Amino acid sequence: MGEKPRSLRKRLLTLAIGVAVYVALLVASRAVESARPAEEITRPQVMLPEFVGAAEASGGRRVRVTYLEWEAGATGERSPEVGRDRLPDAGPDGSQEAAGSDPAGYDPAASSDVVENANGSSEQAGEDRGGDAPARAFVQVRGGDAQAREAIQSRPAVLLLHGSPGDAANFASGTFADGTVYRGLGERLAARGYRVIAPDLPGFGQSEKWIADYSIEAHAAYCLALMDALGIDRFHAVGWSMGGGVVLHLADMAPDRVASATLMASIGTQESEGSGDYWFEHFKYAVGYTGLVVGVDLVPHFGVLPERWFRHSSMRNFLDTDMRPLRRILTESRVPLLVLHGRYDVLAGVRGAEEAAALSARSRLVVNGANHFLPIAQAQEMEGRLARLFARHDSPGVEPLAGVADLAPAARRIGADAFVHRLGRLTLGVAWWVTALVIGLLASRRPRATMVLCALVITTMTLDFGVAAVGVLGGWAWRERRGRGAWGTARLLLWVPIAQFALLIAAWQVVMPWVEGLSAGGVLARAAAWVMLGASIIAGASLVAIVPEVWTWRGRRRLLASWSRLAHHEWWPASVFYLPVWAWLAWLSLRHAGPLVFTCANPGIPGGGGIIGESKSQILDALGDEAREFVLPVRLIESGASPAERAVRALAVIRGEGGEACHGATGGEANPFAYPVILKPDMAYRGFA
């Protein structure tokens, strides 16, 4: 009796020590985080009213909004003629555009990489212009033409809006990871003769971090207030990623002030976002907030992870935003719209851009072969396209140049690559819960293989990660509903998203590029693509099974036991042995001109000569009396009764109390049964009655 109290005290002591260590680490981590130096405001700022949605919040609170500004200059030459910009499949009259040509007027020669300053010196593109300080590009007006200066001043300004997370520096000059310097989009457009403003949207950059509403609608209200504070009436609005939603709300709130709207690698409608369902998407954002904000706060990270305001603002931007009105705005807005998107954007799929452009009658869609980071990695190309749009709509009343220009058509899918994409297309237009239910049914049978297959399909930008994770979790939990306790379920909830994400990275970076490349080859290459697809599913499922086990002693013992079973053929599944049999049957079918010829071997046995469903008692009846001396005594216990009743009848037969004749028994035997006795089903398949 004394052992149990001692064991309990030991466990409680261990728990108390663990909690004390955790609390001490958490307190130390918070101390390190609080010791960070206060933020230094280096950018221009204005104080604006706080907004909730499009309306000012009650209470009269003022919110700091910072921004970067590039002052307008002039190059002495205008952008190429607007008339050169043509519609798809152009004819020589300019009414349409030749297939495969550049539709947005991008002219590399028109975008110099050297900026001439007012003092006559020059700077190479991408040179560091003072870090976070406002970059101001001055370009000398050739000949000092006062009329040119007046024309520049009369142009609308340009408003550049970043995504989430991000800040105004996304449009400034900078340096790539490999050390290559680049010239920012803000500086490039200023060199074209435009005053360029790039704000830190509230919650980001150096603007106010803690506000009431982080939605794209509230951000649009802040932007209008900023333009008022800076004395800017009309402006061209350009939104990257989440900033595209802000641009659409600006076009809806103040259509007379927005000269043109540009969605650059932007979000689109609610239907093109993830699962397409508002409530499921916000469930995902709530889970993300819980994990990335609340959960990280409970981890002693000593300042290694991003600050809380950064995580909070990023998640609240999504959580507070309602994308459902964007469909109406796209349909009703009369503001000229340019949609720029990369074919290989993995953060905001091109499908959303195509749908947004299709909804707007005044839109132009340009798809290139880039990814999500158009204003940084393709800054020069974006400069040319935007400059052409701005030149056309600097003055109000000009009809937009509508159409579609696909400069990077989707590749033709064949073989294994087409199979994966076809699976993805099956999820389009279907309610998210239907897709999750199908995935759950698959996961209830083969959860790990289903995870790998989902990861492969997610790479096609059709299946949503959250829908896949919910489906796998539901199916897996149902499969093991009796074998897992509360702690096991919690581990499963944590493990499935982590494993799904790791599999997705592997599918994106390794598997699908190989499958796509091999599928485009010859016959042998296409066969190899199928082999690689199957091998990746097997390997991925194996890793998902192995990795969680290696961390505990019990798990490692289970792995050793599994290996032992794998090394002994007695434990192999029956399919391993049936494969060569089926191959042999296929050969015999060809040889004897019929797949069922072998059933003629036992024509007297029901079920096609005994293939399946044969009755042992019927076969023994057919043997006749002359075979009794060669057959063990057999007695059929009829079906229909309860298991307990059938057990009583079986015992009566064994004791010789039934008195009925038995198969295989001779007439002189009073009780033909003696132990050991074998109990077998009369009709069975692979041992299962």
Shape: elongated
**Number of helices in the DSSP assignment:** 22
- How much of the residues is beta strand, in percent? 5-15%
What is the residue-averaged pLDDT?
83
Q: Tell me the radius of gyration.
A: 36 Å
> Can you summarize the main beta sheet?
9 strands, mixed
Give me the side-by-side strand order of the main sheet.
Answer: 1-4-10-7-11-12-13-14-15
- Termini, distance in Å? 48 Å
Low-confidence runs: 74-144
How many distinct beta strands?
Answer: 15
Helix content: 40-55%
What structural category characterises the helix and strand content?
A: alpha/beta
How are the SSEs ordered, and which strands pair?
Elements: H1 3-34, E1 45-49, E2 51-52, E3 55-56, E4 62-70, E5 114-116, E6 122-124, H2 146-154, E7 157-161, E8 174-175, E9 181-182, H3 185-191, E10 196-199, H4 216-229, E11 235-240, H5 243-253, E12 258-264, H6 278-297, H7 308-320, H8 325-332, E13 337-342, H9 350-359, E14 363-368, H10 374-377, H11 379-393, E15 403-406, H12 415-425, H13 432-443, H14 447-458, H15 465-479, H16 486-519, H17 523-546, H18 553-567, H19 574-591, H20 606-610, H21 616-623, H22 643-655
Helix pairs in contact: 4-5, 6-7, 12-16, 13-14, 13-15, 14-15, 14-16, 14-17, 15-16, 16-17
